[in-house]
Amino acid sequence: MYYDSLVVLETERLLFRQHIPADMDAYCDMEQDADVRRYVGGAPRTREDAERRFQNGLKPVGDKLAMWATIFKTENKYIGRCGLYPHFNNDGVAIAGEASLGLYIARAYWGRGFATEAGRAFVTFGFEELNINRIVTLIEVGNDASVHVIEKIGFRLAAKEEGHRSFYHYEIIRSMYQNALSL
Q1: Looking at residue 63, what is its pLDDT?
Q2: Which of the four pLDDT bands, split at 50, 70 and 90, describes residue 41?
Q3: pLDDT class for 183, splitting at 50, 70, 90?
Q4: What b/e string do you get for 22-39 counting C-beta neighbours within 10 Å, with b at 16 or more?
Q5: What phi and psi, each to the nearest 5 degrees, are found at residue 31?
Q6: What domain count does the chain have?
Q7: Structure pTM?
Q8: How many CB atoms lie within 10 A of CB 44?
Q9: Are 89 and 95 in contact (CB under 8 A)?
Q10: Most buried residue, 42, 43, 45, 81, by most Cβ within 10 Å?
């Protein structure tokens, strides 16, 4: 069962929907996986912390800017969370017309093109359905697989942030997206 009323977006192989309580174990498994968390926070979360974060994700979303449960349709299985969420300025205020892209896929499903498929779907969704003008994403330096995915779907490097943990700042703007469609 796909919980059709909770579905926000669908691709050939993936379904994106609101999280439901049955997703919690798979969500927590990802949060406790050191390989998944390596470039997203740097360390695995405890089960208790993962459950707390999961419970926060069960709240209804009105504007469709959220991280959605990502379901591999063939297996009807939770394999991660992907989506667009508000892009905030340094003061913590959401920037109108902008969103951040997040793609988190369970390690067992890496290397199968799911992040690319989800990323393309959410870029299209953001520009065509949500009328977003700019989509950004932050990738920790060293996460070459994510850099490859983001560049493949049309993002360009906008800046590099140096520090204890260094990050690439990528962006795609509406005109870049529209130009790519016309090629």
Answers
A1: 85
A2: confident
A3: low
A4: ebbebbbbbbeeeebbeb
A5: -65, -25
A6: 1
A7: 0.91
A8: 17
A9: yes
A10: 81
